[in-house]
Amino acid sequence: MNMPQTAALRAAALLLLAAAPAWASAQSQTAKEVPEPKVQHLIQEDDQVRVEELRVRGQTQQVTVTPKNSRLPAYEIQAGEGGRDVPLRSGEGRGTAGQRVWRLFNF
Questions:
Q1: Which of 20, 28, 74, 96 has its CA 20 to 30 A from that of 67?
Q2: Closest CA to 103 of 65, 60, 70
Q3: How far apart are CA 40 and CA 46, in angstroms?
């Protein structure tokens, strides 16, 4: 390399090294500003059933229904996707109605 190219490379390297701490501090500030998601555990009970709901950022993630005066096991309701419409024909899916799921094995 000739002398002007070497000086230009050195100048570019010095600029990159000088900009690196400012870039790293900007990255750490944006990471700290992101709020944690709001998580809610809601429990509703009556004489017959206990319903536990998990919401993250206002969206229902999990609903567990436990019958009280029955030998039936607890079951989970898998919520449908919020952006979907109710199906027009049968067999297309359940829309936002959800689906019951029983857990057979717990690990």
A1: 96
A2: 65
A3: 20
